[in-house]
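User: Hi! I'm working on a homework problem where we have to compare a predicted structure to a textbook description. Could you give me the structure for the chain below?
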Amino acid sequence: MNVHNIKLAIRNLRRNKLYSILVITGFSVGFAVCLYIALFIYNELRMDRCFPGFRNIVRVYDPAENNCGLDVAINQNFKTDYPEVRAACFADQFNRAGISAKSETRFTRFTGLISTSNDFFNVFPVRIIMSLGKHPFEGKESVVITKSIAGILFPGEDPLGKPITVFDYQKGQITAVIEDFPKHSGIQGKVLLNADNPDFRLSTSCDNGRCWDPMSHFLLLRPGTDIAALGGKMNADIPKNHPEIKAIALQKLTAIYLSVPMDGNGNLTGNFSLLLIFFSVGLVVLVLSVINFLNFYISVQFKKLKEVGIKKINGASYTNLLGYSIAESSLSILIAILIAFGLCWCFLPLANRLYERQLEAEWLFRPVMILVWLGITFVIILINSIAPLAVLSGFNTSSFLGKMKTSGNQKSGRHILTMFQLTASIVLMIMVLSLYRQISYAEHADLGFDKERLVRLKFPFGFKEQDAFKQKLEELSFCRSASLSRGVPGEINLTMGDGKGHPMFKCLYVDEDFTETMGLKMQAGRRFLSGDMGVSCIINEEALRQNEWTGFEGKRFNNGREGGYQVVGVVKDFHVESMHSKIQPVCLLAWAPDRHGDLFNISVRLTPGNLGQQMDGLRQVWKDFIPDEPMTYSFYDEQFDAMYRKDEQLGQAIGITSIIALILTFMGILGQIFQVSLNRTKEIGVRKVNGAKVSDILIYMNREFLVWVALSLVLAVPMAWYLVHKWLENFAYKAEISWWIFLLSGMIMLITVISTVTLQSWNAATRNPVEALRYE
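Assistant: Happy to help. Predicted structure tokens:
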């Protein structure tokens, strides 16, 4: 590739401005999409590699129960019984949004609460900015906050020693401020509570009268430790005083983020299937971009056949032609790649909002990424240099200067490229429509309770006037009903069992109006009466099935610790988690204040009306009872819809990518029809001379492409069905894969192809036939 070839390449780009712009723009947009996807995949793969010694950090879990929430007390065994363990800690993470924290003068909401101990900082050495003592946690009431929370609650102040209230009821004293957790850590927390204080623990499980606090346990192992062997040793040494643990195994910290969902997991998690989908989409877009470039480049080369023929007659060798071809394609591709990097940098903030990640353009220039881009660029240039020349070299010299016929192999190659473009685009469209259908199904499915116009308020710790507050609300004209509870659908932190091999139940303490306020439907039995409080319970159908009871009459839920509860009714199944999870066995325990203490939630069913005015009414009641506390509330419909944010993110990302793929397909077909029109110029002229109408020619030109659309649809349907089916495995409850989605995707592609072919064919069909036949 010499200077002369580069000058010729620049001249040809200028001569064919329209097609140069189309091919470079199309390739740069497609390559920019691949850059975004590469950044996303790079971000996901480097999670949890930000701590020193991350390769030696593991998490303990129970593979038999697929559960990492093990009793906090077992952590002592890990520290003392195994010399391979350098340090061990436990942590319970609460990553739901909307956690409240307040100082004496300020209030904020955040995501990320951790209950742990000082051992945590031995395993995960987050930098301590300031502290009251030698350790971050000093005293039972100690709380550690991050720098960002300190800036919100104590701007310009020293927060050490000052009081803080979390969740409106957990009161403590700040004893240390730490740096924010690295953004690529699966462990994220803004506030850390001292778990040595039982009141600062976030979850409780009970079985046969024995209760424990489930926590995740992380171990920092000595270098060179055989993880599998250590896990086997621990499995053989399961303490007898932990009957809830069936087995023990160890999981690398770096494997947690992309692992299968696990009960008790508080770490941030990704989705390996999502990663494969994005990788596949990126690969498809890259191939489509290369095909489009190839189609346009070959089309332009066909316009220069006589030039190539003259060069061959004058002694140009294959090497000479290859050098020129490499120069021309390299110049176009390098310009397109530079534009792609510019587009990636310009629209990175938009991509970050779409992916909900903090991607950084500088990652593209890491050594590994540079090697990848250089390799991809080399392969693309090689393909786009050799392929056109291979096609053109199939013609002999006389063909370049006279009549030319396309060989069967060349036609087959063109058809394969066309079918790949059409098939890939149809698959992407089917996936997008299926994803949005499933998300819509999940958001609008019957949850087993009525989430519409249902609002939840959270009381601050120590508030004792729950009953009076409820009575005041019931006096409001727009309050249809209200109910007090500890735990609500979507947020249940209490699990109980009877210790007799029966399943563990998700448990809520509720008052007598809970079933009515939530809109739960009775399947059998009755609702709570005043005499049931503290001694009775209501279970759901799943609890009945898992207990293998044929009926509820005479049955008791013997949780052991409180003497058990008489089952007085069965409600129809209702969801306490998202559609990703199966319905859990649930037990509603009739609340008695002398036995169970305070209830922290009140759910209010509103009548149809002006929601703004109704919320003002609720705020006024709140102000009358709790004037010094901000009202903490959430709507159940918004709470459950938020559970599908990641799925909506996937749908949006693939949707935008599919639109780009459709545009690339449009451009690819445009390049092919340009080539076909060029090859059939004289044929079209002859047909017009013999009386063919413009409509006849347009039908003739469309006919071949319509056949390829039909064949592509046949290929795309099983591929798309498989991909959608694999993604839907993430949901326990899913919409059916409907036939109309496949039909609609095929129709969209059909309309796109007809429009594209007709648009380009119109010029050839309306052209004066004399111009085409002038030299015959």
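For your comparison, note the following. The first helix runs from residue 3 to 15. The longest strand covers residues 85-94. Good luck with the assignment!
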